[in-house]
Design goal:
By secondary structure, the chain is α/β, with parallel strands linked by helices. The chain contains nine helices and seven strands.
Length: 196
């Protein structure tokens, strides 16, 4: 039986870096954001549905995220319409990915894990975290990031405190060597000798 480990964390907490550490250890990682990018790209499965439901969002044969952001900024009602199109396609993408692996452990990198109740079907949940001031420093160092955007993103996400309280596992991502060691220890704990 494959252990499905959900990986999540608020913006700037080191989720992508931690996901890569699992890959480096040979653990298959499904990335929800990467799946959406694939679905939105030219020839992607989401393009025909967007073409029909909101044609302005399709530019050059692909779904344009900047256009979607503008549409959402003008009318928050678009979030629901976008989710109606995207969520079933993302779920299918994930199902296809899982069918192709028989690894004892698979990591599913899901930014809005608790927000979409993914914990209900996962084996366990890992939250990556750093203190708020470290998070803010990391996020504000990103190109084109503004204080307003950062606050808006945080408003859409469940707080770090709540995520940590609901997680089965928490890894602090201050120090890369310590994070890598924590990842290795968690892999050993989840698929150690007893499950091998």
């Amino acid at each position: 039986m494959t252990h499905l480990l959900g990986l999540t964390g608020s913006i700037g907490m080191g989720k992508s870096t931690t996901a890569q550490m699992f890959r480096d250890e040979g653990v298959p990682v499904w990335d929800a954001d990467a799946a959406v990018h694939e679905l939105y790209a030219k020839g992607g499965a989401a393009v025909p549905a967007f073409q029909e439901a909101m044609p302005d969002a399709v530019v050059g044969g692909a779904v344009d995220r900047n256009v979607l952001r503008t549409m959402i900024a003008d009318d928050l009602g678009f979030i629901g319409k976008i989710e109606e199109i995207v969520h079933p396609l993302v779920a299918q993408h994930r199902t296809d990915f899982l069918k192709e692996t028989d690894a004892p452990l698979v990591v599913l990198d899901i930014p809005l894990l608790f927000e979409t109740s993914a914990q209900d079907w996962l084996s366990s949940v890992l939250v990556v975290s750093v203190p708020a001031e470290v998070q803010k420093t990391r996020v504000m160092a990103r190109p084109d990031m503004t204080e307003d955007q950062f606050e808006r993103i945080l408003d859409l996400q469940i707080s770090d405190t709540e995520k940590r309280s609901r997680a089965d596992h928490v890894i602090e991502t201050h120090d890369m060597d310590a994070t890598r060691k924590a990842v290795q220890n968690l892999i050993a704990e989840l698929i150690g000798p007893s499950d091998a």
